[in-house]
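Before relying on records like the one below, remember that each one covers exactly one chain. Contacts with other chains, cofactors or solvent are not represented anywhere in the record.
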Amino acid sequence: MCEPMYATGVAASLRSQWDRDEGLGQNHNAVKFLGQDYESLRAQCSQSRRPFEDSLFPCTASSLGFNELGPRSSKTHGVCWKRPTEICRRPEFIVDGATRTDICQGALGDCWLLAAIASLTLNDNLLHRVVPHGQDFGQGYAGIFHFQFWQFGEWVEVVIDDRLPVKDGKLLFVHSAEGTEFWSALLEKAYAKLNGCYEALSGGSTSEGFEDFTGGVTEMYELRKAPPDLYNIISRAVERGSLLGCSIDITNTRDMESVTFKKLVKGHAYSVTGVDEVVYRGNLTKLVRIRNPWGEVEWTGAWSDNSREWDSVDRSIRSRLQNRSEDGEFWMSFSDFLREFSRLELCNLTADALQNSQLKKWSSSLYQGEWRKGSTAGGCRNFPATFWLNPQFKIALQHPDSPGQSECSFLVGLMQKDRRKKRREGKDMETIGFAVNCLHSQFVGRSGVHLKREFFLTNASSARSELFINLREVSSRLRLPAGEYIIVPSTFEPHKEADFVLRVFSEKPANSEELDDDIIAELPTETRLDESQIDQGFKNLFRQLAGPDMEISVTELQTILNRIISKHKDLKTDGFTKEACRSMINLMDTDGSGKLGLTEFHVLWEKIKRYLTIFRQFDLDKSGTMSSYEMRMALDSAGFKLTNKLFQLIILRYTEADMSVDFDNFVTCLVRLETMYKSFKTMDTDNDQVISLNFFQWITLTMFA
């Protein structure tokens, strides 16, 4: 491992978090994707009078895809890239406002995304958060456009040029029905850039698009088990501008995008764009309006565009609702909707309570986290030896939903990050989920504690995600009695690496926080004996080892330790390095000589003996090395309680290729921890847990600690 790169990576991560704490990442102050600033790039293009060419998303095969849209694919043969000004005489960005019919699917399986875009057009405020005002092909045109997307807790601004892939004279991917309107095609390109390439957008869930356009939280309803008030839920959601999508499950791969007898497409994402009620033959009939992003292929059953049912509806209502054009949008009865479709995805924009007609804001929290092999990727409860290593989050439910009840409603959404980008590397979604445990009285009110293995071995889960599944997000609406609970998000199997966002929404105010150990060093008191108190046998050994100057140098310490450790056949080690021995001397050298005298070496010797005892105690499988979870328990026994993040850094720094920690790395780690702790305590003269350093002091401390 390159240590300077490792250190600067940690510093960059801290700097990034400080920026976000200052408000970077909000919609009005979006993160600039790949560092590209729209205004400055646009000004450069205007000054040079040359349209923008985006070198970070070039017009090459790599921007199209890697497999089905790869360089050798027939789908990409003959593709060229053209600006809208080269495609038609008078291109427009948006004509008469953005509408659902502006979005027709091309040769890419991203109907899920297009269904989400179609829903977005129903709410101008939402649309223009994603598609900023003031963009067109008129005066000031410079071939550059920008869009904003919500990405895992923050808004990101993506800049693109307007060169679009064309084949046989037509746009290869998304296009408008009119052919002269380009906002949807450019939006799709920006989203492809964000995810690495166009092919990365193939296949997905409409909820993913919903959330990336709004920052909302999605709930999913299986229509075979629909709640009795689902029509009211949909109606209120439409009124609030929430985004809704629906789909029909497939039973095998041959079903994918197959068309049913009544012209519904299986395995295809539709948008729900409206609801209404009409009087039909004396009865009130509930209707649902649905749109196919293909812009064609419509339902032919009851209440379809040309069905006879409309003949029995009042003329004024019929003229308001009925649309006879083949635009992909159609009505159907709510009962047919429940029967024909399998799933409804609903994105709550303001996270209102859907089980209550009274609109209320949810209380919400968002946490960034990561699963890392060897430190925080513990797997699900099926793996008790490692499950406790996962990140842990506490929620305090204090206010029941209504008087006289004990239960509190809340929604947990667990989302894995950046998985589409990794498709090019052959990786896809991990299988994720979460468990919820009630906290016992000894842990209630405490935050500086990471619950250990014993807690989970003796306490069953109070709730969990409905499934562990390989979707970007798993969400569940839960109801539990008032109290404090711990949420443990995980991959299904241990040692699977991914970054995640955990969001918690509660009907009533509820405090939540990450549950993690406070950073504490409880070190045993060291006994520094006078030379006269040291055992004569040890003195003789020291004289023999130290030589005439009666001081042990770095090289001599390395020789001594490696000679001794080689006699312990139960320990695996590569031997102590000079750097490790220098760290030990820096810790013990009280007179600044760079060497160890008799009393200093005696303290170090006792320390190493103590480390050896701890190592053997927590090498539970007697392998001669430590696994990551054995390491965490050993550090705790040695007096160091560390946060997940610090433990993760230690595992990165001190493990071998197989994620094991051998004895020399174990000792080196403890020595470095103790050195840094003692250095800080020495400089924290007023004991306020804060020190101030100039650059000289900082570099002196880090270079020689």
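Residues 598-618 form the longest helix (21 residues).
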